[in-house]
Amino acid sequence: FKDEFLRIVEPLSEVGAMNEGLRRLGAYWKANMLTRPGTALRNLYSGAIQYSTYLTEELWRGIITGDATRLKNAATAPLRSLFPTNIKNLPAEIWGGTGAGSEVGQFGKSRGGLLGGSVDVALAPMQAVENYFKRTLALSKLDSLGIKIDKARILADDNVLSAAIRTADEFGFDYRNVPLWMEKFGRNPIGALTIPFVKYPYKLTRMYTRYLGALNPWNKMDGADRMARILTLGTMGGGAALAYSQGPDRRYIKGMDY
């Protein structure tokens, strides 16, 4: 009976080993993409675009309500986020800035070993940029709520902690906060080998559908908030259209009109 049982189970263990091998292959494939020298720079300008969306919304809200407090906090947070006291009191783990919550965390579990450790070191600049923007978003939000930036105070109040995490997620992307099916898909071999990442397009889409939702009259929200979101959508959309329209003139290739 034992021999018969092993005969049935052994092929299954081989399949499991193959799946694990494919997941690891996908992780290192994506890691190779992210360890390119330009990746941290790419993360810097993409994070800046996401933060500028947040800043633009606060600008329009300030104009509509006549209260510039939130705009002032959002405008000064990028500098204040570099202060040692704020770095200490807003550590990355608060809002998922390390591990599974980060873009690097889309790999899944820790890679481990010498090669995995080398990848972690190579990804450190990218991780630092991501942590910076999430800390900046959390700092701006907590300042606007009148909350003292103190780690113990933040961790002691679930509402305060939730506000910091929610803002960092909406504009800085917490990759732990995704549907269960997406989390499971990322752990299977097909998901591990999917290029580009599955979670990033999902989080980016959610950020901008936040503004599209303001166009729906059946969505209940404060009037000032609705107008601020609509104007932000128009501003960012117009800016993107202008940026693309200023590209190089490509009407001619090697002197030939195409």
Description:
With 258 residues, this protein is mainly alpha-helical. Helices cover 69% and strands 2% of the residues. A two-stranded antiparallel ribbon has the order 1-2. The chain is globular, with a radius of gyration of 22 Å. It starts with a helix and ends with a strand. The relative contact order is 0.12. The model is unreliable at 4-9, 11-15, 105-111 and 250-258 (pLDDT under 50).
* Intertermini distance: 74 Å
Please identify the structural class as seen in this structure: mainly alpha
Helix content: 55-70%
Biggest sheet character: 2 strands, antiparallel
The low-pLDDT segments are 4-9, 11-15, 105-111, 250-258
Number of strands: 2
* Number of distinct helices: 12
Shape: globular
Largest sheet strand order: 1-2
Strand content: under 5%
**Secondary-structure element order, N to C:** HHHHHHHHHHHHEE
Give the averaged pLDDT, no decimals: 75
Our Rg estimate from Cα atoms comes to 22 Å
Q: Short summary of the structure?
A:
Helix content is 69%, strand content 2%.
